[in-house]
Amino acid sequence: MTQISILGCGWLGLPLAKVLLKNGFSVKGSTTSVEKLSVLQNLGIQPYLIALSENETTGNLSDFLENSKILIIDIPPKLRGISKENFISKIENLVPFIEKSTIENVLFISSTSVYGEDNLVVIEETKPNPETESGKQLVQVEQLLQSNSNFKTTILRFGGLIGEDRHPIKFLAGRTNIDNPNAPINLIHQEDCIGIMLEIIESNSWNETFNAVTPFHPSRKEYYTQKAIDLNLDLPEFNTEHQGFGKIISSSKIETVLGYTFVKPKL
Question: Deepest of 19, 137, 174, 176, by most Cβ within 10 A of its Cβ?
Answer without folding.
Answer: 137
